[in-house]
């Protein structure tokens, strides 16, 4: 398991020591983007990084990297991910903590993607002083999320995500090397969507005053301006 230093998380995620991060400048974006698997978070995050220059922290990508490279954290998380279950809070928070300590996140602001997914994770973020100025949720019907996720393919070289229907690889060379991520199967997606709905009410309840819900069942180019409008309003407060 990833070992935390000062303010280490305790076993099982039951309690967390006080750990305060150096926060980004006041007008920097501090945002959590939420939504079910296949809701379009990754696409919106790519666009937001380009526009706002924030540090994109994807706990899902980080976990998959640890599994692939065989770290202690990856070995512990692998069994959960193979079943499509939520990875224990302690592991997810440990990854988030490491990413938040980067100079990029402290200087440019952050965009947290894939966390929090439980009330315990919400509480841990607040304890660490990681308070967003916007919690944005993309709402997409379950059947649409299933189609989107199961059609995804990843380039193992660039880690870029493509789709067999909506975003095909630009060249035959890239198309040949694309892979299906282990959690993008019907069986695992069914479990992941159920887990998402189970935890979303508790998570959203922790950010009632910062919550903005956006209809994600549209083209990414139609969703993005709505997301940007919500961000600009949050930063103006």
Automatic annotation (TrEMBL):
InterPro entries: Adenyl_kin_sub, Adenylat/UMP-CMP_kin, ADK_active_lid_dom_sf, P-loop_NTPase. This is Adenylate kinase. It comes from the Eukaryota. Keywords: Kinase, Nucleotide-binding, Transferase. The lineage of its organism: Eukaryota, Sar, Stramenopiles, Ochrophyta, Pelagophyceae. NCBIfam families: adk. The gene is AK3. The keyword Kinase applies. SUPFAM superfamilies: Microbial and mitochondrial ADK, insert 'zinc finger' domain, P-loop containing nucleoside triphosphate hydrolases. GO terms for molecular function: kinase activity. Pfam families: ADK. It comes from Aureococcus anophagefferens (Harmful bloom alga). Belongs to the adenylate kinase family.
């Amino acid at each position: 398991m990833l070992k935390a230093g000062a303010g280490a998380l305790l076993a099982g995620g039951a309690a967390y020591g006080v750990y305060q991060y150096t926060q980004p400048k006041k007008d920097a974006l501090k945002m959590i983007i939420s939504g079910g698997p296949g809701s379009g978070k990754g696409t919106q995050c790519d666009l937001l990084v380009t526009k706002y220059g924030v540090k994109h922290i994807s706990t899902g990508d980080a976990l998959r990297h640890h599994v692939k490279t065989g770290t202690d954290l990856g070995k512990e998380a692998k069994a959960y991910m193979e079943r499509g279950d939520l990875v224990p809070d302690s592991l997810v928070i440990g990854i988030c903590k490491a990413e938040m300590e980067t100079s990029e996140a402290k200087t440019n602001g952050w965009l947290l993607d894939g966390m929090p997914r439980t009330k315990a994770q919400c509480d841990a973020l607040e304890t660490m002083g990681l308070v967003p100025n916007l919690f944005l949720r993309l709402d997409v019907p379950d059947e649409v999320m299933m189609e989107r996720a199961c059609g995804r393919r990843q380039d193992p070289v660039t880690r870029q995500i493509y789709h067999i229907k909506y975003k095909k690889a630009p060249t035959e060379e890239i198309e040949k090397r694309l892979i299906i991520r282990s959690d993008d199967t019907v069986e695992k997606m069914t479990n992941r969507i159920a887990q998402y709905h189970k935890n979303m009410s508790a998570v959203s309840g922790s950010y009632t005053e910062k919550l903005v819900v956006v209809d994600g069942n549209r083209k990414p180019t139609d969703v993005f301006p709505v997301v940007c409008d919500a961000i600009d309003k949050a930063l103006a407060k």
